Amino acid sequence: MFPFRFSKASDEQAALSAAASGARYVAGGTTLVDLMRETVERPEAVVDINALPYRDIDVQPGRLRVGSLVRMAEIAAHPGVREQFPMIKQALELSASAQLRNSASIGGNLLQRTRCLYFRDVTAACNRRTPGAGCAAIGGRNRTHAILGTSDSCAATHASDVAVALTALDATVIARDSNGESRIALSEFYLRPGTTPDRENTLRPGELITAVEVTVGPEARRSGYLKVRDRESYEFALTSAAVALDIAGGRIRTARVAVGGVGTVPWRLQSVERALAGQAPSAELWRTAAAIAADGAQPLSENGFKVELIKRTVERQLSTIGALP
């Protein structure tokens, strides 16, 4: 590792002041510390923000608000989250090992960086790490890479599981800097790579996530998260599907569907949602709606299997959630 300055912020203003001077925020450290150890990230200063008061889980009629420093394990274990948002609970529990879930904050999870092997290899060409260097994955080993939202500059897959569930539920990120508070829809928070893959989200330098909010809809209780991976534990998704359905009177009133493991950002399937709305649940409906889940996909040399796999993943999860009482 390399030398850097370390400090602890006693309050929000101290954290913002440190960031204005170029410091990076650290909470659980499960991403940043790894990247610093591998010299992928080399901040000159790091500020510990664990003393900040962003640790509440507030479940109200019509709204869930989670402070950005709440640990993943705490959220998954919260009775209100387990009852009203099974999709979020499942995505968190499938995200990582128990040790990591006990350490990682929800804010840090949303900001975790890609698991692309070329991004983490400082000897390899990576536009996300070094703008203009090229993308070794385009013509290299790309089995785990994205098929949706890619560009000639980057095909790295977004790593977060819970971000997929939160995208399906139209979550909002609450952030703060010296100019005050801002609210950002999670669907607009993440940026596709385009020609600037080093810009991964819309946060301004020094801006601090303070909370995440989710509106409670009738579909949230009938929801779930399915993760398909090479091995059962501690592995990133090849594909995943977050599905929430509001079914009443034998018809689907509202559908929310997002997928992971296949996009450069958490990928909302609005075309699938439209195909489901107003329809009577059936095996045929799940099959026909899932058939368009990969529309627009641009597979690379080794990940073409994801086109069919994401369709099957969505169909399976639609069938599972549609069968819930």
TrEMBL record:
Keywords, A to Z? Answer: Oxidoreductase
Keyword Hydrolase assigned to the entry: answer is no
Query: Which SMART domains does UniProt cross-reference here?
Result: CO_deh_flav_C (SM01092)
Q: Oxidoreductase as a keyword?
A: yes
Residue ranges occupied by any FAD-binding PCMH-type domain in the UniProt entry:
1-219
One GO term in the molecular function aspect is: FAD binding
Return the PROSITE patterns for the record: FAD_PCMH (PS51387)
Any idea what this protein is called?
Answer: Putative oxidoreductase FAD-binding subunit
Q: Which organism is it from?
A: Rhodococcus wratislaviensis NBRC 100605
Lineage, broadest ranks: Bacteria, Bacillati, Actinomycetota, Actinomycetes, Mycobacteriales
